[in-house]
Amino acid sequence: MRYTVASALAMASTVAAHAQVYGVWVNGVDQGDGRSAYIRSPANNNPVKDLTSADIVCNVNGGTPVADFVTAAAGDELTFEWYHDNRADDIIAASHKGPIITYIAEYTETDGTGALWTKIAEDGYDGSEWAVDKLIAAGGKADFTLPSGLAAGKYLIRQEIIALHESDTAYNANSARGAQFYPSCIQFEITGSGSDVPDEAFDFNTGYTYSDPGILFNLYGSFTSYTIPGPDVWTGSGSSGGSNTAVATTTKAAAATTKAAVATSAAAAATTSVAEAVIATTTSAAQAAVTTEPAAVETSIVPTFSTIVTSAAATQVESEAPVATSTGTPSTGCSSRRRRRRNARRNIKKLSDNQ
C-alpha cells in the first residue's frame, strides 16, 4: 500500500492526536472508569519512543501500583477501551496506523522492566486494514481472549498501540521521529482452575530494537504485509507444561507396563515353583510306592490280567533270586518254585475264564 503526499500532510497536522486506556470490559460488562483505579495511568497521552527507557513497559507512572484489580476468569473475553481526550471521542488520529499488541506478566509492584512478559494477542495489518483502523471503527474498543488454561493469580496485562506514521526513521537516529508507543498496564485478578503459567520471559528493553522491521517501517512506501514485533503469541495449550504432562503420562504408562510384566514374571515363577513342587511330590510318592513291600501291594491292589502276567514274568526272570517270606528267611527249595509257578498258571487260567 502507498500513501499520497496529501495523506502525509494530513498526518502531520494530527501529530498530537494521541491515546490512552479509559477502562476495561469483561465479557461485554463495563468495569467502569479504571484510570488510576485499576490502570497504572500516565499523566497524559504522550507516546514513548525511547526503547531503553523503563517507560516503554508500562508508560510513565508504570512503577506505581494502584488500589484495585479487575476480576476475570481464564478464557474470558476482555475489551480495552481507548480514548483521545474524552471517552468515546475520536480515539486516536487516523494517521497513527499500526498494530495493537497485548502482553501479560505475573503481578509486580515494580515498573515491569526485565524478562517478565508473554504475548497473548496481536493484530497488525491484514492486507487492507490496520488494527488502529479497526479500533477507531469500534469506538476505541480492542478485544482479545484470555488463554483458557491460564493459572489463577494476580497479573499485569499490558496493551500497546504502535503508531507508525513517523517510523521510517529510527528514534536513535533522529529523536524527532521514530515509532510511537502507547503502552498501558492494568492490574488483574484471574480466577479458574488452569495451570498454565506464561513463560516467554520477554524483556521490552532488549527484545524491541530500533532495527526491528515492525518498528523501523515506512508507512508511506509500498508494502503488502507487516511483521509484528515481539515473540509469538502464547496460548497456554502448547506450552512446555502440556508436553511434560504428556511425557509424564507416557512414562507412568510405561512404568505400569513394566510393573505388569514383572508381576506376570513373578506369577510365572510362582507357577513354575508350584509345578516343580507337584512333580517332586509325585516323584516322592512314586518312589515310596516302588519301595513298598510286595506283600503290602498284593493286599491293597485287586489283581488284573496284566498284573498277574507281569508278576509271573518277573517270577520267572528272578527265579534264582531270594523271595521274601512271612518269616523274612529266604526260601530256595525246588518245591517252593514249583508251587509258585503252579499258582501263577492257575491264576492266569482263572482270569482267562473270567474274561
Write up this protein.
Helices cover 32% and strands 18% of the residues. With 355 residues, the protein is of the alpha+beta class. It folds into two domains: 5-244, Distorted Sandwich (Coagulation Factor XIII, Chain A, domain 1); 289-354, no CATH class. Strands 3-9-8-5-6 form a five-stranded mixed β-sheet. The chain has a four-stranded antiparallel β-sheet with strand order 2-1-4-7. The protein starts with a helix and ends with a helix. 30% of the residues are buried.
What is the CATH architecture assignment of the largest domain? Distorted Sandwich
Mean of residue pLDDT values = 78
Integer count of domains: 2
CATH topology of the largest domain: Coagulation Factor XIII, Chain A, domain 1
Estimated radius of gyration: 48 Å
Largest sheet: 5 strands, mixed
Give a brief outline of the structure.
With 355 residues, the protein is an alpha+beta fold. The protein has helices at residues 5-12, 55-58, 131-137, 204-207, 240-290, 294-300, 305-317, 334-354; strands at residues 20-26, 29-33, 70-73, 77-83, 100-106, 118-123, 141-145, 153-163, 180-191.
